[in-house]
Amino acid sequence: SVSAVDYHAALKTIYVIKSNLPKSKIILGGIHPTIVPEQYQFDVVDTIVIGEGEISFIDILRDFERNIKPDKIVQGKKPDLDKTPWIDRELFNYRKETECRFTPDQELPSVTMLAGRGCPYHCTYCQPAENAVFGKPYRMRSPDNVVLELVTLKSRYDFKSIVFWDDTFTFNKKWLMEFCDLYEEKDFQSTILACSRADIICDNEDVIERLASVGVNWLVIGFESGSQ
Taking the CB of residue 202, how many other CB atoms lie within 10 A of it? Predict the structure, then answer.
C-alpha cells in the first residue's frame, strides 16, 4: 500500500525484493497507485489494485496459485463493511499504541477505531485521494457492528478512551443518535475523540449535546477554507 510520499521508497523496496526473490509477486494498492496507476507500470510490478483491496487481493492470490496471470490493473471490489472481519490488532504491538495520547488529558489505555470509509465532501486539499480509493457513496458500518467491536476491545484492553479516525465521524445524524444509544447502554465509562467539521458542529447543537452526554470530550475540526 503506497502513498505519494512513499513512492521512491516503495520502488526501491520492490526492486530489492525482485532482485533477491525473482519469483515473488508484487501487488500494489493504496492511495497513490489508485490515483496515478500509470506511475507504477513497471515489469517488476505484477498487479495494481485500484480502490479497496481486501477482496480483490485474495482473488489475485488465488489466480497466482492456479497459474493464472491477473490483469495488470484490477478494480478492487467493495467489501460489505459489516461483513469485513475486524482488524487483528495483535498482528503488531497494539498494547504499545494503547499508551499513546493524542490530547493532554486523554486517559489511557486508549483504542483507535474506524466506523466508515470515504467522505461525502469534496475539499480540494483532500481530494481526490479519499473518494478515489473508497468511491461513492460514503459508507458507515452499522452502529451495532461498531459497538460490538468496542465491547470486544473493552474486554481485551479495558480502554479508558477511544479515538475515531473517520474523516467526518459526525456526518450522519441518524447514525450518531443510534450509536449514542447503543454506546450508552454498554456503559463503557470512556471518553471519545472524533473528527468533525465547524459547520456540522454549529448547525447541530442537539447532536453535539448528545455526543457530549456519552463521553465525547474532543472534536478535531478540519479547516474547510482559509477564509474566516
Answer: 9
Q: What is the pLDDT of residues 24-66, one digit of tens each?
A: 999 999 989 999 999 999 999 999 999 999 999 999 999 999 9
Query: What local confidence, expressed as pLDDT, does residue 192 receive?
Result: 97
- Distance between CA atoms of residues 151 and 172, nearest Å: 22
- C-beta of residue 191 within 8 angstroms of C-beta of residue 162: yes
Q: Is 33 helix (H, G, I), strand (E, B) or coil?
A: helix
Which SS3 state, helix, strand or coil, does residue 74 take? strand
- pLDDT, one tens digit per residue, over 98-130 is 999 999 999 999 999 999 988 887 777 666 566
- Output the CA–CA distances (angstroms, integers) from residue 66 to 4, 43, 53, 189, in the order listed: 33, 21, 20, 51
Residue pair 68/78 in contact (Cβ under 8 Å)? The answer is no
User: Does residue 228 register a pLDDT over 90?
Assistant: no
Tell me how far apart the alpha carbons of residues 98 and 93 are, in angstroms, rounded to a whole number.
Answer: 9
Q: Whole-model pTM above 0.90?
A: no
Handedness of CA 158, 163, 164, 169 (dihedral sign): positive
**Letter string b/e over residues 84-114, b meaning 16 or more CB atoms within 10 A of that residue's CB:** eeeeebeeeebeeebeeeeeeebeebbbbbb
